[in-house]
Amino acid sequence: MNRFVVLLAAVLGAAPAIARADAHVEYRLHYQADAACPGADRFAAEVAARLGFVPWSDVPVETLVVAIVADDPGFRGELRRADGAHKVLRAATCSTLVAALASAAAVAIDPGLHPGAPLVVSAPDVVADGPRFERRWAPRTPLYVTGAGLATGAVGGLFWMLARANMDRFNAQIASQCAAGCDPQRPEVSSAYSYKGRAEWQNKVGLVALGAGAVTTLAGITMAFLNGPRLVESPRIAVTPTEDGVGVSVAGAF
User: Fold this and answer.
1) Going by DSSP bridges, is the β-strand pair 62-71/27-32 parallel, antiparallel, or unpaired?
2) Quick check: helix, strand or coil at residue 36?
3) Which site among 42, 92, 156, 159 is 20 to 30 Å from 127 CA-CA?
4) Strands of 86-91's sheet, edge to edge?
5) Which residues are CB-neighbours of 204 under 8 A, at least 6 positions away?
6) pTM for the predicted model, two decimal places
7) What number of CA atoms fall less than 13 Å from residue 16's CA on the CB side?
8) Cis? peptide before 38, omega within 30° of 0
9) How far is CA 170 from CA 9, 159, 197, in A?
10) Angstrom distance (rounded) from CA 23 to CA 19
């Protein structure tokens, strides 16, 4: 009696898969993927494992097209059925994307796996493709550049102020010690000229730093203005009929 119950349960358990295999049309798989991705055999096997039967045939009624391309920073894949139903997904790794597309393909072949939700797949590392935005630089890079420019300008301003202070000391000593003229070689006069020499090189350093700071600050502000999010167009995957059935082409846009 127990053996009969076990046998009956096994038959009943296999019945839905057998019924689905009998009830659904056979497909031909057209699979094109980046060299870093799993091959067509693995994809076909993953779909069959999810369905519980092998949907592929050399004399198919329908065609299922899968195209996967590298699309920085990961991979982008499209699943398309002959009736126009399609799904575009994106993932960081191709193996993750292939697994998600295999799930979507199983649902496309047998919508009964997820009634009312054809071509729907849920995975934490996979996202449906949509508008993608990116910046020319990291968000904080213009801020760092602007800050560096302001800091350089501040250093330049400090040197310029020191130069003025030393030049004022020079003028004050010359005015007090050489009102009626004096010999520059005198010790007290030569010390005054040391202020002048110091002021000259400090003035040069200050002006160079002020100029560099102004240019760098302007560059940072310009970068901030240009660093707004911009739409990045993903490669287009086109599916066209050929003499052998279906052709897949990928076109990029810049």
Assistant:
1) parallel
2) coil
3) 42
4) 27-32, 62-71, 74-81, 86-91, 126-128
5) none
6) 0.47
7) 7
8) no
9) 107, 16, 9
10) 6
Residue pair 32/68 in contact (Cβ under 8 Å)? The answer is yes
Distance of CA 190 to the CA centre of its chain: 64
Q: How far apart are CA 107 and CA 104, in angstroms?
A: 5
For residue 54, give Cα distances in angstroms to 26, 30, 86, 88, 206. 9, 15, 21, 24, 78
Overall residue count recorded for the chain in this entry:
254
| Cα-based torsion angle of the residue sequence 211, 212, 217, 223 in order, rounded to the nearest 10 degrees | 130
Q: How far apart are CA 169 and CA 37, in angstroms?
A: 75
Contact 31, 78 (CB under 8 A): no
Tell me the one-letter amino acid at 97. Answer: L
Taking 3-state DSSP, the helix, strand and coil percentages for the chain, each rounded to the nearest 5, stand at 50, 20, 30
Looking at residue 56, the DSSP 8-state letter turns out to be: B
Residue 89, CA distances (Å) to 55, 100, 121, 126 in order = 22, 8, 9, 7
Q: Give residue 168's Cα distance to chain centre.
A: 57
Q: CA 22, 30, 238, 72 torsion: positive or negative?
A: positive
Question: Which DSSP category does 228 fall into?
Answer: S
pLDDT digits (tens, 9 = 90+) for 5-46: 344 344 444 444 444 444 567 888 989 998 889 999 999 999
Beta bridge partners of 89: 77, 128
